[in-house]
Amino acid sequence: MNAPLNHPLPLLDLDVLRTFVAIAETGSFTTAANAVYRTPSAVSMQIKKLEDILGRSVFSRDARSVALTTDGEMLLGYARRLLAINREAVAKFIIPDIVGVVRLGSPDDYGERVLPHVLKRFAQSHPSIAVDVVIDQSVNLRRRMDDRMLDITLLTNSYKASAVGAEVLLTEPIVWAGAKGGCAHMREPLPVSIWEEGCAWRAGALEALGRDGRDYRVAYMSSHTAAQRAAIMADLAVAPLPKSFLGDDMVELGPKDGLPAIGNYNLAMVVSPDASAPVKAVADHIRATFEVFRERGRFLS
C-alpha cells in the first residue's frame, strides 16, 4: 500500500536491510541469522517488518528454499548501495584515513575467482588505499616476495609443504573435474589438462596417477584458469581443480570413475615483515574473506 503523498515516507532500518542482504546472499534464513547474530525467529520478524513497510513480498519461500521475488531483486540493489554508503560514512569517522599503495600477488585461479570480490569490498571500506595486483605462478610470486617486489602474496602449496613464513588461509581437496555427461575420463591414455611446472595441483595429480599406474597424456597445458575450464567443458581432458572451483556444468570424478584420489592443498598468504598500515589493512581483509568462506562455503559478492 503506497503512503499518502502528504505523509513522510517511512525510513528503512539498516539492520533490517543487512539481514535482508544476508538472506539473499546465503539463500537461507538460518544461515543469515548466524551471520547477523540473531535468532531465526528474530530474522523472520525483521523481514515481516520490512515487507509491511514496503507493502510487497521480498522473498518467496517453501519448505526447502528461499528466493528473491521481483520486488526483492529490485530492493537488493538499493539495500547494497545504502549499506555501502553507511559503511563509507561511518568509516570516515571511526577508521583512520589510511592512504597508500599495496602490491598484491595472486595465482591466476584466485586472481580470477576471488580477488574481484575481495577488492570490491575492500574499496568500500578503504577508498584511499590503491591495490596493484600481479598475477603469476606461486613459485614466481614467492620469488617476487623475497625480492621485495610485493607486499602481500597468495600462494598455492601442497598440503604437506606449505611455504616458510606463510599463513594458511584455506585447506581443501583437489579433485578431478570433468564435463557433465563427458567421457574424457574413459579414454586411454587419460587426457589430462594441467598447469605448468611448479603448480601444486599438477604435482598432486601426476603423483596420484603415478601411484595408481594410470597411463595419461598431457592433452592441454595452460597456466590460465579460463583455458583450463575451456578444455574441461569441451570434454578434451580432465583436470585437477580445488573442489570449490567446480561449477554446475562440471562433475567431480574419482575412484568409481577410474581416477585416483589426489589429496588436499593449502592456499596461504605471505605478508611483508615490515608491513605498513595499508598492507596490514589488506591482509586483515583477506583473512576475513576466507573466514567467511570457511563458515559458509562460498565467497560473498
UniProtKB/TrEMBL annotation:
Residues 12-69 form the HTH lysR-type domain. Signal peptide: none annotated. This is LysR substrate-binding domain-containing protein. The keyword Transcription applies. It comes from Aquamicrobium soli. PROSITE patterns: HTH_LYSR (PS50931). The keyword Iron-sulfur does not apply. Keywords: DNA-binding, Transcription, Transcription regulation. It comes from the Bacteria. Gene3D superfamilies: Periplasmic binding protein-like II, Winged helix-like DNA-binding domain superfamily/Winged helix DNA-binding domain. Belongs to the LysR transcriptional regulatory family.
